[in-house]
Specification:
The protein is built from 19 helices and 18 strands. The chain has helices at residues 20-32, 47-53, 88-91, 109-124, 140-152, 202-209, 218-223, 227-230, 234-240, 274-286, 312-321, 334-346, 359-368, 384-391, 401-406, 412-416, 430-444, 447-459, 465-479, and strands spanning 3-8, 37-44, 56-65, 68-77, 80-86, 135-139, 161-165, 173-174, 195-196, 199-201, 212-215, 244-246, 296-303, 325-332, 351-355, 371-374, 394-398, 423-425. The structure holds adenosine-5'-diphosphate.
Length: 483
């Protein structure tokens, strides 16, 4: 029997993306479909979503959803079934999904995403006259209030619900004064509800109300029991015990495949490693880099403390000094950007920067750079190292979260067993990063070994098959529905 799931997210490829959440929310429906799960995704009605959707049908109207009128539209992108919360005051804005043009959070984010949650609970419980769903699956704090509304203010408070945490660092925490405006009953104001450290915690509310909390790698599921990773919610995670699970993200072969990449021109795609050399030349041109016989490192990242990007500039003199080069694509903290510009100015032809967001260029870098650097302080799953593995761009990663779970360090034992797929290092600081770069350069100059590491990565299976099955199994466990 098909099991129907309402998945709620604030972004999903190919429509809107600021990070890995979008990759996962976009890939999940196709990943669970072979396992008998019919998934519909609810997204906010950003202009890009409305435009991409083409034909859409009005299925419901709210006179007031958190104070604004809203409509529910239904449509499809390819096989992906969508529901879109069309409320222009909330979602049709110039600027980012969560921030204004100055990169400051929209001051009414709490209201925007409470509205998304309220709508999701209405839909999942059948209040919108659409068919009801067997289970509600919310992603991150922006969707988390769906679970609170379901439990405290719907006709189906017992509907099974899953809360997935893609990054514990973003919790949607607001002052207590917003509580009366949420339209929740007084009973929701408790530690078993939405109250968190005397404020309203969106993610916390979702975690509290979920039957099962998942996060996107087994190691991160364990790490968030500690304060450094749990960021205030470690107590709740510990209390939920085996109700907290880790399911690794997969990668979507329709979007990330070295042989049939849909985003980059055909000249970059490759079945064998040979073509990567040509792709590297193209990157050198693109980033104004000199040719050299040393490795070309890539970084594709938000330029933030989480990603270890504050440490990167410190180590670039050394990286260049021992024959490396860097092509970096990213944007974020102004201080980090400035330090990177200064390093690039010291090393023309060796360090190339592209500050901004460029989907096609991110694929080109994976198709041509030798190694991808991911020095994250914490990393729930991480996707860029998975794309690197698939494309033969060797990942060089900090040993944390999903990076630990997906990369096999090229230590002597792994090299002897011919299973190494990358380089891992402990701790995100100058010396650790420097030592990792030294190891990469030494490996790179042993071409046979290097190629073996690349090939091992390309053979590794990070498709959605296993994870799609794991989510479907979880849905069945919670709903009691058998295939
Ligand atoms: P996070 O979601 O924490 O940013 P992930 O590694 O899970 O980190 O996912 C990042 C996603 O965003 C990847 O698909 C990566 O390729 C993409 N990405 C990050 N920065 C850029 C950029 N500047 N341009 C294009 N894609 C980017």
């Amino acid at each position: 029997m098909a099991l129907s799931v309402l998945s709620v997210a604030s972004e999903a490829v190919p429509l809107v993306k600021t990070g890995g959440l979008a990759d996962v929310a976009g890939a999940l429906p196709a990943a669970v479909a072979p396992h008998g799960v019919d998934m519909v995704t609810l997204l906010p009605g950003y202009p890009a979503v409305g435009k991409a959707m083409g034909k859409k049908r009005l299925v419901y109207k709210w006179d007031s959803l958190l104070g604004e009128p809203a409509r529910l539209l239904s449509g499809k992108i390819g096989e992906h079934k969508l529901l879109v919360l069309d409320s222009p005051t909330f979602f049709a804005r110039d600027g980012g999904l969560y921030t204004d043009a100055q990169a400051d959070d929209w001051p009414d984010n709490w209201r925007r995403f409470a509205a998304l949650g309220r709508a999701a609970a209405d839909i999942a419980s059948g209040a919108t006259r659409l068919r009801g769903f067997d289970l509600l699956h919310a992603h991150d704090w922006q969707a988390a209030m769906a679970l609170a509304y379901l439990r405290f203010a719907s006709d189906k408070p017992d509907l099974p619900a899953v809360m997935t945490i893609h990054n514990m660092a973003f919790q949607g925490y607001y002052e207590a004064r917003i509580f009366p405006e949420l339209g929740l009953p007084a009973a929701a104001w408790s530690v078993d509800g939405v109250e968190s450290y005397a404020g309203v915690g969106f993610l916390k509310a979702g975690m509290q109300a979920a039957n099962v909390i998942t996060t996107v790698s087994p190691t991160y599921a364990n790490e968030i029991r500690q304060p450094d990773f749990g960021m205030g919610l470690e107590g709740l995670i510990t209390m939920r015990g085996d109700r907290v699970r880790g399911i690794l993200n997969g990668i979507d072969p329709a979007v990330w495949s070295p042989v049939s990449d849909p985003v980059i021109p055909a000249r970059y795609t490759h079945k064998t490693l040979a073509k990567r050399e040509k792709n590297k030349r193209a990157i050198e041109v693109e980033f104004d880099l000199d040719e050299s016989n040393g490795p070309l490192f890539a970084v594709i990242s938000r330029l933030t403390w989480q990603k270890g990007m504050d440490v990167l500039p410190e180590v670039l003199d050394h990286l260049v000094g021992i024959g490396g080069r860097l092509a970096l694509l990213g944007s974020g903290d102004a201080v980090i950007e400035k330090a990177l510009h200064e390093a690039a100015a010291r090393h023309p032809g060796r360090i190339g920067l592209r500050i901004g967001y460029d989907e096609a260029l991110s694929h080109q870098l994976q198709a041509g750079a030798d190694a991808i650097l991911v020095p994250s302080r914490f990393e729930p799953c991480g996707l860029t190292q998975l794309y690197g593995l698939a494309y033969g761009c060797v990942p060089v990663v900090a040993r944390t979260g999903g990076l630990s779970d997906t990369v096999i360090d090229a230590n002597p034992a792994a090299l002897a067993a011919e299973v190494a797929t990358g380089v891992q290092f402990d701790g995100v600081h100058y010396h650790a990063l420097r030592a990792a770069i030294d190891r990469v350069i030494a490996l790179y100059h042993q071409p046979r070994v290097w190629r073996r590491v690349q090939r091992n990565g390309m053979k590794a299976d990070f498709s959605w098959d296993a994870s799609g099955q794991a989510y479907a199994d979880l849905y069945r466990e919670l709903t009691g529905k058998t295939p």
